[in-house]
Design a protein that fits this description.
Helix content: 40-55%
Distance between the termini: 58 Å
Strand content: 5-15%
Number of strands: 10
Low-confidence stretches: 1-25
Shape: globular
Order of helices and strands: HEEEHHEHHHHHEHHHHEEEHEHEHHHH
Largest sheet: 6 strands, mixed
Mean pLDDT: 88
Radius of gyration: 27 Å
Structural class: alpha/beta
Length: about 525
C-alpha cells in the first residue's frame, strides 16, 4: 500500500470533482489584449447604464477602474498568472482565457450569484460584460462553455483570491481613507452542500460508494465475489429507508424498533466492509495505472469513513452513549463539515463552517477567516483583530463585536490592539451595568454594530454565501473567497458611481455615511 500511496501522489489533481491534469500546460495565455478593436470600445470606455439597479453594473464599474489603474491591475493579473501557469509556459499551446478575462469571470460569478450555466449565458450574451472582457461584437470564436469556465476558475488558489481582495480593499481605502478607522465583526455559518446527515443515511452513502468501487476494481483485477452488488445495496437501502420512516413517527415503540433496524444495518454493513478490506489486500501489490490507483485510494478512504460512522452508530444505539461532535462525521463527501447550534430562528442546527468577517466603515470586507472545526468566536477574536489592525496600517480606532466574543482576557487584550473596542458583556446583569456606565463612543459603536448583520445578509443572499455549491475543503475556501471578492467589487463600484453620478440608480445605498 505504501507503493500505491507514493504513486498516487503523481495522480492528476482532483479539485471540486474535476481532474486538473497536465493538460492545462497546453494553454497559451496573456495578461490582457491591448490591441484596439473596431467592434468594441476600449475596456475603460465601455458605456454602462448607471440607471440600472442590477448588481452587475457596480461590479463592471469597479473592474473598469482596476483596468485603468496599472498600479492595481498589474499585481492582480500577476497573481492570477502565477496560478493558471504556475508549472507551464505561457507562450505555447492553444489560446486560453486572458488573465483579465479570468478576473472578470471570477468577479461576476458570485458577485451576481451565478452558477456556471448562467455565467456562460451571460458571457455569451451580455454585451457590456463581453466588452469589459475585451470580446468584440464580431468575435464568434471565443468559447465560454461552462466546463471551460469552471476548469479555469478552479486553477485559482484561495490564497490568491484573498490577496486580490486585499488589493481591492486597499484601493477602496485610498479613495476613502476614513473607512479604515472603524470596523465591526461577526461570524456566520456558510453551509456545505450536503443532505441532512443521519447515521443511517451516511452509512448508505458510504456503502454505495464502496460497492461501486469494489465492482470496478474486481473487474479490473479479475476478482470474483461482487456479482450481487445490486442486491447487497438494495438490502442496505431498504433498511435505511425503514429507519428514516420510523424516525418520523411518534409511536412510543419507535425507539426500540429503530434500534433493531440499526443492528440489522450495522451487521450487513460490517460484512460488506470486511469483504471490501479483503479486496483491498488482494490488489495492494498489483501493478495498476493512475486511475486505478485513485480508485484504490478512494476505496480505502470510504472504508475508513464508513467504519467511523458505524462505530458512532454502535456507541449511540447499542451502548446508549452520547457521542461528541468531534467524533462524528456529517458527510461522506464534505468531511470538513461541522455542526453548529447557534440558536438561530428556524435554523437550530447548521451544517457547514463558521466564518468570521470584518467590515469597515465603507462596507468593504477587509478581512475574513474560516475558523477551525472546534473553534468558537471568543477563541480567535484577539488574533484576527491583530491581523486586521496590521492590515489597516494601525489606523483602526473603533471596533465593535457582539457578546459571543466576550471574555475577560479578550477585553484586556483587545484594548492593547485597538483604542476603543466595543465588547459587550455576556451576562445580562453585567451588560446592563456596562451600558449604564458606557461612554458616548461605546454607545455609538453599539448602535452601529447591527449593520454587520446586513452585510452578512448581503453576502448570503447576494453573493451565495448561505450555502457553498463547490466541493472539497479547498473548493469551500475558494468559494468563500470568490463571494467576498464579488462583495468588495460591488462596494468599490458603488463608491465610484457615487463620485461621478450621485443621482444614478446604481449609486443608491442605504448605508449611513458614518457606518
Amino acid at each position: 500500500m505504501q507503493t500505491i500511496c507514493a504513486m498516487a501522489r503523481m495522480n492528476p489533481r482532483k479539485t471540486n470533482g474535476i481532474t486538473q491534469s497536465s493538460s492545462r500546460s497546453t494553454w497559451m495565455r496573456k495578461p490582457f489584449s491591448d490591441q484596439q478593436r473596431l467592434d468594441c470600445d476600449a475596456i475603460n470606455n465601455v458605456k454602462l447604464n448607471l440607471n440600472c439597479r442590477d448588481e452587475i453594473i457596480p461590479i463592471l464599474v469597479a473592474l473598469q477602474h482596476i483596468y485603468s489603474s496599472a498600479s492595481v491591475r498589474e499585481p492582480i493579473l500577476r497573481l492570477i498568472a502565477e496560478d493558471v501557469n504556475r508549472d507551464s509556459r505561457r507562450d505555447i499551446g492553444r489560446e486560453g482565457f486572458d488573465d483579465w478575462q479570468i478576473l472578470v469571470l471570477a468577479a461576476v460569478r458570485l458577485g451576481c450569484n451565478l452558477d456556471y450555466d448562467k455565467l456562460q449565458d451571460l458571457a455569451e450574451q451580455h454585451r457590456a460584460l463581453r466588452h469589459t472582457m475585451g470580446i468584440g461584437d464580431w468575435d464568434d470564436e471565443t468559447s465560454f462553455n461552462w466546463r471551460r469556465i469552471q476548469s479555469t476558475l478552479l486553477l485559482l488558489k484561495p490564497e490568491t483570491i484573498e490577496k486580490i481582495n486585499h488589493l481591492i480593499v486597499a484601493e477602496g481605502h485610498a479613495i476613502d481613507p476614513d473607512a479604515r478607522k472603524k470596523v465591526r465583526a461577526d461570524s456566520f455559518v456558510v453551509e456545505t452542500n450536503i443532505h441532512y446527515p443521519t447515521e443511517s443515511s451516511l452509512i448508505l452513502d458510504g456503502i454505495t460508494k464502496i460497492l461501486a468501487l469494489c465492482v470496478v476494481l474486481s473487474a479490473q483485477f479479475d476478482v470474483s465475489g461482487w456479482r450481487q452488488h445490486e442486491h447487497l445495496l438494495k438490502k442496505i437501502k431498504n433498511i435505511a429507508i425503514t429507519i428514516s420512516r420510523m424516525s418520523s413517527g411518534k409511536s412510543p415503540k419507535s425507539e426500540e424498533r429503530i434500534k433493531i433496524q440499526y443492528r440489522k444495518l450495522l451487521k450487513r454493513s460490517l460484512k460488506i466492509l470486511r469483504r471490501a478490506e479483503e479486496l483491498l489486500n488482494q490488489v495492494a501489490d498489483q501493478e495498476a495505472d493512475v486511475v486505478t490507483l485513485c480508485n484504490i485510494m478512494d476505496l480505502k478512504r470510504f472504508i475508513e469513513l464508513t467504519q467511523q460512522v458505524c462505530s458512532t452508530a454502535h456507541r449511540r444505539v447499542n451502548e446508549g452513549e452520547t457521542v461528541p461532535n468531534s467524533d462524528k462525521i456529517f458527510s461522506m463527501f464534505e468531511t470538513h463539515t461541522q455542526l453548529y447550534r447557534r440558536g438561530k430562528a428556524g435554523q437550530p442546527n447548521q451544517f457547514g463552517r463558521l466564518v468570521m468577517v470584518y467590515e469597515d466603515a465603507a462596507g468593504f470586507i477587509s478581512h475574513y477567516f474560516m475558523m477551525p472545526r472546534d473553534a468558537q468566536d471568543a477563541d480567535v477574536v484577539v488574533e484576527q483583530t491583530r491581523i486586521v489592525q496590521d492590515r489597516h496600517h494601525n489606523e483602526i480606532e473603533d471596533a465593535s463585536f457582539d457578546r459571543g466574543f466576550d471574555s475577560p482576557e479578550n477585553e484586556e487584550q483587545l484594548r492593547t490592539i485597538i483604542e476603543h473596542p466595543c465588547l459587550p458583556k455576556k451576562a445580562p446583569s453585567k451588560f446592563q451595568e456596562q451600558t449604564k456606565n458606557a461612554s458616548i463612543r461605546f454607545r455609538d459603536a453599539r448602535q452601529r454594530h447591527p449593520g454587520i448583520e446586513s452585510a452578512i445578509g448581503a453576502l448570503q443572499s447576494g453573493n451565495a454565501l448561505d450555502r457553498c455549491r463547490d466541493r472539497t475543503e479547498i473548493g469551500f475556501e475558494r468559494y468563500l473567497a470568490l463571494g467576498i471578492l464579488g462583495r468588495n467589487l460591488h462596494v468599490l463600484g458603488k463608491i465610484l458611481i457615487q463620485q461621478t453620478a450621485p443621482d444614478a440608480k446604481a449609486a443608491e445605498s442605504r448605508r449611513k455615511s458614518a457606518a
